[in-house]
Amino acid sequence: MTPVGAASRDPVFIEFGPRPEEETQLVRPGAREEYPPDVQTRLEADAASIVERYPDSRSALLPLLHLVQAEDGYITPAGIEFCATTLGLTGAEVAAVATFYSMYRREPTGEYYVGVCTNTLCAIMGGDAILAALEEHLDLAPGGTSEDGKITLDHIECNAACDYAPVVMVNWEFFDNQTPESASSLVDDLRSGEAVTPSRGETLCTFRQTARILAGFPDERPGAVEGGIAGAPTLAGLRVARELGMTAPDPSEVEAATTAEAPPPADNGRKGN
Asked: 45-99 pLDDT, tens per residue?
C-alpha cells in the first residue's frame, strides 16, 4: 500500500497521437483527385475574390480551405492541390494546415455536422449522456455518418458556451441546454427536412453552405448578421458585480501603480567606462 502523500510507482500509460477512431488520411477511395474544368473555373473565380483581400496571398489559406470544403464536403486531394497551386505553396504545407484545425473535415460529412461538447463542464452536465444517446439513436455508418447521409455525429472540444451547458452544435450553430431527449428530437427534425432554428442565430443551412460562409462569402439568410443580445447566464457575472458595487479600475491608475511598484533594473555587475 502506498503511504499517503507518497508517489505511486505504478506506470502510467499516456498515448500520444490521433484517437483510434480519427481519420488521418486525406487520400481515400472516392476522394476527388482533381476538379472538372467547369468546377475549376468557378473555384478560381471565387478564390481570386478571396486572395485579393490579403496583402500576403498565403494568408488566404484558411478561407480557401473552407471554399474547397464547401465544394466537396471535406478536404480532398483535389482541394489540397487547388489551394497549393493558387497560393504558390506545396501540398505538404497546405495539408499541414488542413490537418491541424478541427473545423476542416478529413472524411465525407453529412448535410448536418452534429457536434456534442464533451469537455469538462458539458460532460458533467450531461454531454457524455447526450453523445451516447445519439450514437444509439442514429444508424451510423463507418465515419460517423447516418446511412441517409444527413447527419455526421462527432464529439467536439469546448466552443466557449459553457454558460449554456450541455451544448450541441449543428454546423457550428449553438443548441443550448440540451438533453438526450431534445438532442434526439433535433436530429430527427434534421433528417425529416424540417426547418430548424438554433438557440442563437437563424434557420440552419447545410454544412457545405456553412463552409462557404466561413470562406468569407455573404450569409444571405434573413437576419443572420443582425446583432444578438447576450442571455442571462452569460451576464450573470456582470449582474453580481453590479449588485456588489464592483467596478473596474481606471486604466491610467493601474498603469501608474504598476510603474511605481516596478523594481529598479538589475545592475548585473556592469560599470560605466
From this structure: 999 999 999 999 999 999 999 999 999 999 999 999 999 999 999 999 999 999 9
> Running DSSP on this structure, what letter comes out for residue 262?
P
Residues 127, 165 contacting (CB under 8 angstroms): yes
Q: How far apart are CA 254 and CA 264, in angstroms?
A: 18
Q: What is the Rg, in whole angstroms, of the alpha carbon atoms belonging to the chain?
A: 25
Taking residue 174's Cβ as centre, other Cβ atoms within 10 Å add up to: 18
* C-alpha separations of 233 from 101, 195, 240, 270 in Å: 29, 27, 11, 56
pTM of the model: 0.78
* Contacts for 93-97: CB closer than 8 Å, 24+ residues apart: 94/61, 94/65, 95/26, 97/61, 97/62, 97/65
Q: Which CATH architecture does the domain made up of 37-98 adopt?
A: Orthogonal Bundle (1.10)
CA distance 177 to 189: 18
Locate the domains of the chain by residue range.
37-98, 112-207
Distance CA 190, CA 206 (A): 10
Q: Write the burial class of residue 57 (CB in 10 Å: 0-12 exposed, 13-18 middle, 19+ buried).
A: middle
**Fold adopted by 112-207:** Glutaredoxin (3.40.30)
Please name which of 150, 187, 182, 153 lies closest in space to residue 166, comparing C-alpha atoms: 182
Residues 6+ apart with CB under 8 A from 254: none
Is the separation of the CB atoms in 145 and 110 below 8 Å? yes
**Residue 185 neighbours by CB distance under 10 Å:** 13
